[in-house]
Design goal:
The chain is an alpha/beta fold and 370 residues long. 36% of the residues lie in helices and 19% in strands.
Length: 370
């Protein structure tokens, strides 16, 4: 097996956790596989992932080596691996488009974005020259035009897209058909965490249904102090985010709740929380003979590392799909790892299909060698 060459659009907290995490596993090996579905994923290890290109718009990251940009403001996630090796990848200036909300200019530079006075590079050209195979989209919530721009660059260059943000590409039939026609795998949209608010809420909703409890109403409120939560203070950027998170929960019910009985979405920005995200969850229902019950939960997680292992698994699945010549939306891994996949499944069903895909990939790889 050879390296999995990836490019990253948006060198924020999530990208920082991902790249630091790969170095963590490189130094700890298979003795420490927390956060991953498998150490060996169809023949690919986490350490096979190699960043060959990176794009951002912040003046403190553009033109910097990737290993330095990972720790540049406004990034505020916990340090996983302090002594990152010197990177040959220099962060390139991407197009701003709708990637920066106007309200963020009212906040201190260490909390917000500072747009570099640079002209954007030709992203498609960089992708081609770097020989990237997969592009990760880590752009801010609400960056519809920017995500679509990077998706178009992928189509031009044959690069796969792993869309970690709530802009609908893999789950949009028009965009999905474009990738399918070109024979390019695409995964998305809006990455789940390993154990985050959406995964917990989905599984509790499924538990209510499986145990015969009628769910009447529920809410999920989240607070955090990273740029993601600061960006989402602009409620106009939250339309697709709320759809993504709400449908992820509603999909676990045979009869979805009325709109007034379900509220899921970001709640507020609390600077001192930094990359810590706190979820407040309430569910009200009725059990035997209509007797009411309620559940309340508080979940506290470091937001960005919580999805980094998920991204590593999606990247490796995507590479296996490329090895097998598959194109279009990657359904099981999107259903398991994304909030708004082209097709919703419960976790157990999606996981079983992923395991079968890995088994088939191993057979295909073994056959190809003889």
């Amino acid at each position: 097996m050879r390296d999995i060459k990836i490019a990253i659009a948006g060198v924020g907290n999530c990208a920082s956790s991902l790249v630091q995490g790969i170095e963590y596993y490189r130094n700890n090996g298979s003795k420490d596989t927390m956060g991953l579905m498998h150490w060996d994923f169809g023949g690919y290890l986490p350490t096979d992932i190699k960043v060959v290109a990176a794009f951002d718009i912040d003046q403190r990251k553009v033109r910097q080596p990737l290993n330095q940009a990972l720790f540049s403001p406004p990034n505020c996630t916990k340090t996983i691996w302090k002594d990152m090796p010197e990177s040959e990848v220099i962060v390139q200036m991407g197009p701003v488009l709708d990637g920066v909300s106007e309200h963020m200019s009212s906040y201190a530079p260490d909390k917000s974005f500072v747009v570099a006075d640079e002209s954007p590079v030709d992203v498609a050209k960089i992708l081609k020259e770097s020989r990237a195979e997969i592009l990760l989209s880590y752009l801010p919530v609400g960056s519809e035009k920017a995500v679509q721009y990077y998706a178009d660059c992928c189509l031009k260059t044959g690069v796969s897209l792993v869309n970690c943000v709530p802009v609908f590409i893999a789950s949009n039939p028009v965009w999905e058909q474009k990738f399918k026609k070109r024979g390019i795998p695409v995964a998305g949209d809006d990455i789940k965490s390993q154990l985050g608010a959406t995964v917990v809420h989905r599984n509790l909703t499924r538990l209510f249904a499986d145990r015969g409890v009628k769910l009447d109403r529920t809410y999920q409120l989240n607070t955090g102090g990273n740029t993601d939560f600061l960006n989402m203070l602009n409620r106009e950027r939250l339309i697709s985010k709320k759809i993504s998170k709400t449908e992820a929960v509603q999909s676990q019910l045979e009869n979805p709740l009325e709109e007034d009985n379900i509220h899921i979405g970001p709640s507020d920005y609390i600077p001192w929380q930094k990359d810590n995200k706190v979820c407040f969850l309430r569910m009200e229902g009725r059990g035997f003979a209509g007797i009411p019950l309620s559940l309340e939960l508080r979940l506290s997680v470091e937001d960005s590392p919580n999805s980094a292992g998920v991204a590593i698994d999606v990247i490796r699945y995507c590479r296996l799909a490329r090895d097998r010549g598959e194109g279009g939306a990657l359904l099981p891994i999107s259903a398991y790892c994304m909030k708004h996949p082209p097709q919703q499944m419960n976790e157990a069903e999606a996981r079983a299909l992923i395991e079968e895909f890995i088994r088939q990939s191993k057979v295909t790889s073994a056959t190809a060698r003889f």
